[in-house]
Description:
three-stranded antiparallel β-sheet, alpha/beta, D-Maltodextrin-Binding Protein, domain 2, 13 helices, 2 domains
Amino acid sequence: MIHRKRSALALATGTALAALLLAGCTTPTAEETPEALDDTPTELPAVDCVEPDPAATLAPVTLMLQWLPQAQFAGYYAADCLGYFAEAGLDVTIVPTGGDIVPQEALFAGEADYAIAWVPKVLGSIEANSIEVTNVAQIFQTSGTLQVSFAGEGIDTVAGFEGKRIGSWGFGNEWEIFAAMAAEGLDSTSVSITTQDFSMNALLDGDVDAAQAMTYNEWAQVLETVNPDTGELYQPEDFDVVSYADTVGAMLQDAIWARTEALGDPAFEAQTVEFLKAVIKGWVYTRDNPEEGASISYAAALDADAAFPVGPGHQLWQMNEVNKLVWPAANGIGVVDANAWAQTVDGSLASVNQDGVKLITTEPPTTAYSNDYILEAIAALEAEGVDVTGASFSPITVTLKAGGI
């Protein structure tokens, strides 16, 4: 568990990143020198974590994330920090991962009780490695993936992908590219998939024609970068953006998974419901308190051995954008929408990659998702007066600064 005080901590990492970005800028070509960039670090409110009762008996639980600590996982960190897990009788250890760990496969191997993973990635593991896991809560209801190119390069639609160098992180993140192309009858073998790192350097350096980005992360990174031609930050109009959420290629992303076999144990089923209740309360808190959610996530990133980027302004942007993927949740947070699930599966079945190889060839088993546990958790919280749909959710406005400070 995390038992530290959550506050506006040292900003050295974000400031250093901003300095590096600024140092790499050339002299602006505009006739007038642009105004100095705002280099005041973003202030996040202090959040004091709740210390659990030392006399309490808590069941140990491990939650494995699919990436490093950041506001993408704010609801889980908030549930820990604010004592929601402890209230549920759980001592939850949150385990970040990097590209060297496949969460759903580590979960199936018994290295965690629950794991966060995108649905298409799990579909691939189910077919390739015969893992048996179940989606017990679909936290992200909407795809947050973008394909970003410089404006005027002709890649403002999926049709523009043909014959281009399309950036992707790999590891299953590229499936939406091929699903979107398949839906429009385009030739995916004409695409050169170029592996990019988890930044926008590949686009800015000209190594790809269109880079992959998440609304809550890499898209912000490029907008936190100084345009060497102007001396000011890049603006959205400098780019063409294809949002997969607007295409048939959109796929379900962050979900909570458990081992299917474990869910046959009534005790584990009961634990899962209690775990999901705490998770929901964490996401409700970060929905209603985005600045505090960003602060909790920022502190978790600073506490971690590895995290990038950790700038407080970047984390606030991320918290705000992640909330848009979770809320509103018409059927209740975490409920798997059958149509969205079918679109993800159908897109995976219909797609071939750049080498002409099908992504998957068979339907996943019916046990690949279940709404039983999340619906039970939602019903219990609704009885307590918790808003589990966020129908009135409204995002805040976040102004980015160089380096995400």
